[in-house]
TrEMBL record:
Keyword field contains Transport: yes
Protein name as catalogued: Uncharacterized protein
GO molecular function, one term: proton-transporting ATP synthase activity, rotational mechanism
GO cellular component: membrane
Subcellular location: Membrane
Principal cellular location given in the protein's record: membrane
UniProt KW keywords: ATP synthesis, Hydrogen ion transport, Ion transport, Membrane, Transport
Native organism: Candidatus Wildermuthbacteria bacterium RIFCSPHIGHO2_02_FULL_45_25
């Protein structure tokens, strides 16, 4: 019963925050906390926030960051973005001229593919 209640609260919270402008979100969070206090459900706050985070990621998509030395062609960018969208990621592109060449794909906060020149040189250095 408590888990179902947390999911309901989370859905209400995410829907409220999604529709609100940035400056109104703080007000919404305060009102939400007051509501939980009045209903005696403050102890469920951590469970509610965990559920809300899952829902938010489902609506916004998980972040995949593509870091490259120069901008991708529109065809390459579309192709990569399409593949990432299929598995629930939204792509954010970052240009970093310090990379010299190649690209790295970071899903959430961990490297998945490091095909940069710097990464290749570091792997070669480890072998020597």
């Amino acid at each position: 019963m408590a888990k179902a209640k947390a999911k309901i609260y989370a859905r209400v919270l995410v829907d409220s925050l999604k529709e609100a402008k940035q400056h109104k979100q703080t007000e919404i969070m305060r009102a939400f906390k007051t509501l939980l206090q009045k209903r005696g459900d403050v102890r469920q706050l951590s469970a509610i926030l965990r559920e809300a985070e899952k829902l938010w990621q489902d609506t916004e998509g998980k972040l995949a960051k593509l870091v490259s030395a120069e901008a991708l062609t529109s065809g390459d960018k579309e192709s990569i973005e399409k593949c990432l969208n299929k598995v629930g990621y939204r792509m954010e592109e970052e240009i970093d001229p310090k990379l010299i060449g190649g690209m790295a794909l970071i899903l959430e906060n961990s490297f998945v593919i490091d095909n940069t020149v710097r990464g290749k040189l570091q792997r070669i250095a480890k072998l020597l």
